[in-house]
UniProtKB/TrEMBL annotation, chain A:
GO terms for molecular function: ABC-type maltose transporter activity; ATP binding; ATP hydrolysis activity. This is Sugar ABC transporter ATP-binding protein. Pfam families: ABC_tran, OB_MalK. The keyword Membrane applies. Keywords: ATP-binding, Cell inner membrane, Cell membrane, Membrane, Nucleotide-binding, Transport. SMART domains: AAA. The keyword ATP-binding applies. Belongs to the ABC transporter superfamily. PANTHER family: MALTODEXTRIN IMPORT ATP-BINDING PROTEIN MSMX (PTHR43875), MALTOSE_MALTODEXTRIN IMPORT ATP-BINDING PROTEIN MALK (PTHR43875:SF3). InterPro entries: AAA+_ATPase, ABC_transporter-like_ATP-bd, ABC_transporter-like_CS, ABC_transpr_MalK-like, ABC_transpr_MalK/UgpC-like, Mo/tungstate-bd_C_term_dom, NA-bd_OB-fold, OB_MalK-like.
From TrEMBL, chain B:
One of its GO terms (biological process) is transmembrane transport. This is Sugar ABC transporter permease. Belongs to the binding-protein-dependent transport system permease family. It comes from Thalassospira xianhensis MCCC 1A02616. PANTHER family: ABC TRANSPORTER PERMEASE PROTEIN, INNER MEMBRANE ABC TRANSPORTER PERMEASE PROTEIN YCJO.
Length: 370, 291
């Protein structure tokens, strides 16, 4: 059964279009994360689903019902705001009971539902307190509790963890994940933090400038990005990008291209593509993730890897893992991830191999060439 | 160690001295003098003889004193709550506007507040003039005849109250607007998702969150309006038939008109006691409501 379906959604503020023709289908009970840099329209899209923003065109469907022009209260959605939006003059109990009191539910029912939500969120001890007497994490839980008591069809989270410190954020991330398993409702979560997106989501929607870049499971996006933006956005540290031109291209039984990197001396790499091959002379970009760059005593044994000479700039030693930040001879940045290898790289220049099987190829517009 | 702490005390005393001296000379001493004078038969300038409670006994036998107390409280009733509610209403409408339109409308509402009282009363004497006033056709349409409002004992005080509200309302609007702007939009968005109607949003969110400012506005108004004098002095001089005679005017008449400094001080003490009593009472009531 479908939870939420967005069809050809557009949003314009006057002449400025901020959401361009978005199509997303979310299954019931799925945890979907909208992720993208700030200003990409992810919060606007969420607010449109909530009914807090008008939809310029397109159809929003929640559990089989067209709610595009329905008022927010009747859509069966609950929202957790970035600021929590807890009413400062009401106690935790009254904050959580607010929607039920507005709906004039019987007192016993309100008490039962609020206490149930408080139990799930471990807030039983704090029901008589005012929000100002709570810690950031507790306030966050009250905000979630307020959403739970309504038993909505869809939970909407608008960057709910961005006001918390790093440690609490990790903890609340797990709690939200546990809550999702416990109540099994459809959840849509907006964040600019790709780590949050990777850890929470069943399905990630990557947005940029109001356009959906790719939709897929976290590992799908990581292993098989559709374009250079998704490749660079998902994964931390970022994917390394090197520019080059197509030196030779063979169309035939095996579509191979030779790409000459804009790096001396003879860094030519040969890739096999399944799709159409680009013409000779086309500018392209190669991408490789930091963990796939090989260093140390490496030799190009099978001849399928590009070899680079890198100038190391500085190294982040994190214990189990270290990141070496370096520059190529042409000045492009390359980050290398090293695990269980504490041998400090002393020398200024190191040589690195980029194995062909780990390379991603993008055209000048950033589209993936497969 | 000892020396150091004494030095600090001296420094502290030196630093607060300018304020303490000003306070003592221009506030504490005159207040003391007022209380002291109320037990003497002093004229406006110069010392008098101790006459005990005679001034107070005279005051409680003075019919005009009771009239003044009644009129002062009547004026407070006509101004304080209406002025606060009108201010809130206008603020809630203005705050919905955006950008320069909001600023422009706000300026229009605030403008009367910057006018001196003489100009305000002059304007309203023109507006309400029985023969030429622009408001007279309106009064005629409702009542059926023109009324010389400042010469009519029923109309005089409400009209003074109307002018006062028109004059001072801008300041209340300003206070309410800043309070309304402090309520985040998120609260209303969360409430509308929860199905709260506009009225419910006002009752359950806006009103309780505005309450501290409302209490402030009410208290400021109360103190200000109990001290009513200028508008009455300029528009009705207490008439007609003493229907707008207020306490400060009585003080003025006794002190400056009849050279009875002692008796005027006694009336001033009475006003002081009324202001303190009413303010404390109101503060307690407001505090109880806020909880």
């Amino acid at each position: 059964m479908s939870g939420v379906t967005l069809s050809n959604i557009k949003k314009a503020f006057g002449p400025v279009e901020v959401i361009h023709d978005v199509n997303i289908s979310i299954e019931q009970g799925e945890f979907v994360v909208f992720v993208g840099p700030s200003g990409c329209g992810k919060s606007t899209l969420l607010r449109m689903i909530a009914g807090l923003e008008e939809t310029t065109s397109g159809v929003i469907d929640i559990e089989g019902q067209d709610v595009t022009h329905q008022e927010a209260a009747r859509r069966g959605v609950s929202m957790v705001f970035q600021s929590y939006a807890l009413y400062p003059h009401l106690t935790v109990f009254d904050n959580m009971a607010f929607s039920l009191q507005i709906a004039r539910r019987p007192k016993d029912e309100i008490r039962a539902k609020v206490e149930e939500a408080a139990r799930i969120l471990q807030l039983d001890q704090h029901l008589d307190r005012k929000p100002s007497q709570l810690s950031g994490g507790q306030r966050q839980r009250v905000a979630i509790g307020r959403a739970i008591v309504r038993q909505p069809k869809v939970f909407l989270f608008d960057e709910p963890l961005s006001n918390l410190d790093a440690e609490l954020r990790v903890q609340m991330r797990m709690e939200i994940s546990r809550l999702h398993n416990q109540i099994g409702a459809t959840m849509i979560y907006v964040t600019h933090d790709q780590v949050e997106a990777m850890t929470l989501a069943d399905k990630i929607v990557v947005l940029k400038s109001g356009v959906v870049q790719q939709i897929g499971s976290p590992l799908d996006l990581y292993d098989n990005p559709d374009n250079q933006f998704v490749a660079g956005f998902i994964g931390s540290p970022k994917m390394n990008f090197l520019t080059g031109t197509v030196a030779k291209s063979n169309s035939g039984a095996s579509d191979t291209v030779n790409i000459r990197l804009d790096e001396p001396p003879n860094s030519i790499v040969s890739l096999t593509l399944s799709g159409p091959v680009p013409k000779v002379g086309t500018a392209v970009t190669l991408g490789i993730r930091p963990e796939n760059v090989e260093t140390g005593d490496v030799t190009d044994a099978d001849g399928h890897a590009a070899e680079l000479t890198l100038k190391t700039e500085f190294t982040e030693e994190l214990g189990g893992v270290s990141y070496v930040h370096s520059l190529t001879e042409s000045g492009a940045r390359v980050t290398i991830e090293r695990r269980s290898d504490r041998n400090h790289i002393a020398q200024d220049h190191i040589s690195a191999l980029l194995p062909t099987r780990h390379l991603f190829l993008f055209d000048a517009d950033g589209a993936r060439l497969r | 160690m000892r020396l150091k702490s004494r030095n600090r005390t001296v420094t502290a005393l030196l630093l607060i001295a300018p304020f303490v001296i000003c306070y003592l000379v221009v506030f504490a001493y005159p207040v003391y003098k007022m209380f002291a004078m109320s037990f003497t038969n002093a004229p406006l300038i110069g010392e008098g003889e101790w006459i005990g409670l005679d001034n107070y006994i005279r005051m409680f036998e003075h019919k005009l004193f009771y009239t003044s107390v009644y009129n002062t409280l009547y004026f407070v009733l006509l101004t304080v709550v209406p002025n606060t509610l009108i201010g809130l209403g206008i603020a809630m409408m203005v705050v919905r506007l955006k950008g320069w339109i909001q600023a422009g409308i706000l300026v229009l509402f605030f403008m009367p507040y910057i006018l001196p009282v003489t100009v305000v009363t002059q304007i309203w004497q023109w507006v309400l003039d029985q023969q030429f006033g622009v408001a007279q056709p309106l009064i005629e349409a409702i009542i059926g005849r023109r009324i010389s409002v400042f010469r009519d004992p029923v109309w005089a005080m409400p009209m003074v109250a109307l002018v006062t509200i028109w004059w001072t309302n801008g300041f209340n609007v300003l206070l309410f607007i800043s309070a309304l702007r402090n309520i985040p939009d998120d609260y209303y968005e969360a409430a509308s998702l929860d199905g709260a109607s506009r009225l419910q949003q006002f009752r359950r969110i806006t009103w309780p969150l505005l309450w501290p400012v409302t209490a402030l506005v009410l208290t400021l108004q109360l103190i200000l309006q109990l001290k009513i004098f200028d508008q009455i002095y300029l528009m009705t001089q207490g008439g007609p038939f003493n229907s707008t005679y207020v306490l400060l005017q009585l003080v003025y008449r006794e002190a400056f008109g009849r050279n009875q400094g002692g008796y005027a001080s006694a009336v001033a003490v009475a006003l002081f006691v009324i202001i303190v009593a009413v303010s404390v009472l109101q503060y307690q009531l407001l505090k109880a409501r806020g909880k």
